Amino acid sequence: MEIKDIVSLIQKLGYKEKSKDIFEKKYARDYVISINAKKGTIDYGSEIKRGDLTTSNFEHDENFVVLECVNRLLTKGYRPEDLHLEKRWKVGRGVSGGKADICISKDIDGENKTFLIVECKTWGDEYENEKKKTVSNGGQVFSYFQQETSTQYLCIYASRLNEHDEIEYVNSIIKTVDDEELIEQAKEDEHVKLFSKATNNKGLYEVWKENSACYFHPNGIFDKDVQAYEVDLKPLKKKDLVEFKDDNYGFFHNQFAEILRHNNISDKENAFNKLISLFIAKMVDEQKSDDEILDFQYKEGVDDYFALQDRLQKLYKDGMELYLREDIFYVEEDYVDKTFSKYDNKRDRLRMDLIETIRKLKFYSNNEFAFKEVYNEELFNQNAKVLVEVVKLLQPFQLLYSKKHQMLGNLFELLLNDGFKQSEGQYFTPIPIATFIWHSLPVEKMMENKNNNIPRVIDYSCGSGHFLTEGIDTIIRRNEELKYSNYDSENYWVKDAIYGIEKDNRLARVSKIALFLNGAGNANIIFGDGLEHDKERLGEYETFDILVANPPYSVKAFKQYLKLKYNTFSIIDTISDSSGEIETLFIERINQLVKPTGVAAVILPSTFLTKADSKAYIAARETIIRNFNIKAIVELPGGTFIATDSTTVVLFLEKFDRPPKLEDFYMDTVDNIFEKNIIERECGDDERFGAYLSKIGVAKDVYIRFLNGDDYNDFSEIPYFAMYIEQFNSLSKVKNLIKSPSFVRLSGESKKQKLNLEFYKYVLPIEKEKVYYFSLMFGQMTLVIKGPKAKKEVKEFLGFYWSKRKGDEGLKKQGVGKLVNMEDINDKTKLAYAVHEAFKGHYDVDSDLEKYTQYVQLVDMVEFKKVEFNKIINTKSQKYFQQYEKIFLKNKQPQLLFNKVATLEYGKSLPEIERRNGDVIVVGSNGDIGRHDEALISGPAIIVGRKGSAGKVNYIEKDCYPIDTTYYVKLVDDNVSLEYLYYLLKQMNLEDLAEGIGAPGLNREMVYSIKIPVPDETVQKEIIKACKENDDNILNLENENNILSKQLFDLMEKEIVGYTKDKEQLGIAADLVRGPFGGSLKKSMFVSKGYKVYEQKNAINADLTLGEYFITKEKYEEMQRFAVKEGDILVSCSGTIGKTVIIPKDYEEGIINQALLKITPSTEFRSEFIRYILMSSIMGNTYEGHGTGINNIEKNDLLKEISIPKPSLSEQDIIIAKLKEIEAKIETNKKKIEQGKKSMLKDFTERLKG
């Protein structure tokens, strides 16, 4: 502190300047403390004891906190002789000394003993950090407590002179006296921990942690109405509650788990339910005014177990009635007295009343706070101990806020994932996904459509309430942008606008709590079935502006349990009793609820779009197409949801406006064409019909002839109709007809007419349906977003991942993600903005997002050129097919569907333990994986990866055994060479069609739908010859690189590992700095431009241009230790040693992140030489010998201790030159290999063109 600030402080404390720079203050009994401002000393007088003079000077800011605290104690009436500053003890194992800032003693059992220890810290970070240390391991105060076991209270204290020129203080008090209830329990249960039984500071800390959940009392020592030497731990008032902060939710989650652990509670689901009950009770309690005493707390020295539980039961009863409209039976504590006073001498009535009440208690009462089963007094006490611990954990925090509270939401999410076992078909939506969906929706457009009023929102399967809370937040944000006036700061508007329906009673409570925690407790949560329609609660059909939901799916045999009173579904007739396709009903429900021009976003299994053999799925897709514009389809990768690795899709829909009702309008049109034969009027200049004909590749005059019923054999040369003819002729019904005696007796012309009639009976309904649905879809542009497959890329795409590491469970941030900016709703660099713009008809996307997106005409995603018209919407491969067609089909070669040339047959399972040694190659998706003595198929064979390395193509010359992760190719067209098909498949990049995460799979039906070029035998042989030559050249280059890599390794062994003249420890040869950990580099610090943050991918790819994170100049200067400079070696810390890259001369200024190690060589070492050392066996041998990896370097300094060779700089230059020469050859060959692969594709396509 500056001397002027010190003088201001001591004068504020009441010190007067008696002579120049000498300040004094006189306390009770004329006790004087003197301060010499010039010398910077504090004289605490003769009666205040001092262990040393550490705090009797101006050297540390903390000393003035001690001075202010001593002043407060003496002013309150504490005697100087009872204060001891800097009292010394030995702590721990006697290795180091410890000193308490202030020890205060009083008469205890006839002796003057320490009863209070105060540890003083400066205001802000130092104070908060000491609290964190105390919570983490007991900190300093428990070390002191170990020495002074008479201590009854510990206190962490801070004060300051604030901006209003007033002295203010904060304190956190720990009670270290055992409660009477616990003392009694300890007599029966040796596992109950007591301060009186603890033998060291760790044990004392464990008692506080276990019995009080690390609870700090906020008052009771320095309050104005508290007398000296009397600590009065006053009950909490509402104004005492503290806001939930970033570092609280991890502590709360871990401490709650610890409470369950040390009380032997294994039923986490029950514990979560009880915690929800406590949340409800606490929310009711927080309705009090600021100065009212809270009921939700354990009142020290006042409460017993019965009093606490009685108050909690009353709060819970009120909460259930208020929030969920449920009556809870509750008997007040004074029930008996009231009953006797009411009945006077009318004993018969009294008897009946008591009998009725006891009956209710026996049969109807459910202990909502029973973490343990309670059926006797002992178990009641055990459970009450748990309850007190949980209440103490929860009581200091504020739960209710007027707006969304992110940290509290994170905690709730974590507790939910721990304690709620998701039932069949339930997958809770992560908050970032809910935010992405809401930021994507045109909420402001919905407001404008309602004349600036609030849109009506529903989630018919609201689960934990994420969609509702994020929706409210988005509506508020959009309202603030548009400056509408129809919103109130207390969010009362949600009562008429926000609706959630949940069938699970527990989740209904969870949703209600989530809404309260986000400042929207007035929103409607309906406990009921989302498929039901209660008009009293929901209003009429088609009245919601926005529907957002993640409905359940794949619930087996749900139909037999579905009991609906007020609603019906047309799709239900397509569902069998054993089916689990409940999601199809929820799709039809969207149409029932959303009004014309309203919007919806719904999460569905990805199979919804592509499942071809389900009548219910087809009917559900028809419902969507008939009623909605599909504005966007977003494929979320596996790993998005904590409970499943399945891929899902989000459909973003906008309902057609009315009138006219488009499904009826186009049905009338199609009826006129196909039934009333008004062809020219309907088809003459109709753009839709022309587009349909173009789609199927049929001329208008030909199609009109088809509609007129011309002889179907006249169309046999037209591929589209030939498809129908082939299918028609293969029908059993047709074959039986031709064989029937009645048909045989017909004349040739009559036979022809009969078959023609049957053909059109079969084909016209299919064509009518195709034209109808094409008309509905025509003109719709859909944004398709497809997430990546690789796990690392998935994390970067989502911006989060799920951690299952013990003690660190839950959703973890991973970079900034591609989907959404949680803070900026209009971030143009996020996919949410692209979807939002698609609703407006704007089709543009940030260049960095192009690899995930494509804009596709909806009709181009639906297959119209097959006989079966099942309305499959194929989003997976549009880019692939567009590119494939451009490369392989823009030629004059004949084309056939793949399954007309070959089939993909399943390999067969052959576990390693069942393989018998032989000469037959066992083939997995990645190639040769072993041997067996029996072949499954004859060679030569093409094997295609089905799972894992899906899409990878291998050619096996000999008989082999493809396992069940593969397909093997079976030719069905003798005109196609197996080798030609192999080289074609190699060029087709089937890997791009693989779906899923972890072990992606290749769907053969998708491959079957691909048309492939089938040139004549001569062209096939030319292609095979050219590809073989290229293959041989690539193989030679790869073999040469293998030899060069061994030469490089051998040379490093000789010149580096074998160098023995002089050695140096790596820690001396270079400065090693691991990237910043913890909160020193967080997402919130990143800016759009500034100083670069170098990442792991820079080292992995040896490319320093990669990266998208930047920090400000101020942050860069603050983190200079992590700044890079020319010659630094950056090492990836993923894996054992990681990849390396050297910072060049023209580098971009910046710092490393936590995933990198920075090595700065001394002047005696070249950077390249250190890099080669990192590549050598010196590193591998060191880590293999110690069983560790680079992630553990910070803990054991192993890397710094490695002994490395120390040649002279000139010797280093010679070694570097030799190694670089070999590396240059390897890089040249790699480029030739890549060029060879491109040449192969070029040769292939040029020969197809002829």
Automatic annotation (TrEMBL):
Family annotation (Gene3D superfamilies): DNA methylase specificity domains, Vaccinia Virus protein VP39
Any one Pfam family match given in the protein's UniProt record, by short name: Methylase_S
EC number: 2.1.1.72
Record domain DNA methylase adenine-specific: where: 405-657
Annotated ranges, domain Type I restriction modification DNA specificity: 907-1039, 1085-1235
InterPro entries on file: DNA_Adenine_Mtase (IPR051537), DNA_methylase_A-5 (IPR003356), DNA_methylase_N6_adenine_CS (IPR002052), Restrct_endonuc_typeI_TRD (IPR000055), Restrct_endonuc_typeI_TRD_sf (IPR044946), SAM-dependent_MTases_sf (IPR029063)
Keyword DNA-binding: yes
Keyword flag Ribonucleoprotein: no
Key words, A-Z: Coiled coil, DNA-binding, Methyltransferase, Restriction system, S-adenosyl-L-methionine, Transferase
UniProt record, GO biological process: DNA restriction-modification system; methylation
Class in the EC hierarchy, top level: transferase
Catalytic activity: a 2'-deoxyadenosine in DNA + S-adenosyl-L-methionine = an N(6)-methyl-2'-deoxyadenosine in DNA + S-adenosyl-L-homocysteine + H(+)
A GO MF label: N-methyltransferase activity
Coiled coil stretches, renumbered: 1027-1054
PANTHER family assigned: SLR6095 PROTEIN (PTHR42933), TYPE I RESTRICTION ENZYME ECOKI METHYLASE SUBUNIT (PTHR42933:SF4)
Similarity field: Belongs to the type-I restriction system S methylase family.
Name of the featured protein: site-specific DNA-methyltransferase (adenine-specific)
Protein source organism: Dorea longicatena
Lineage of source species: Bacteria, Bacillati, Bacillota, Clostridia, Lachnospirales
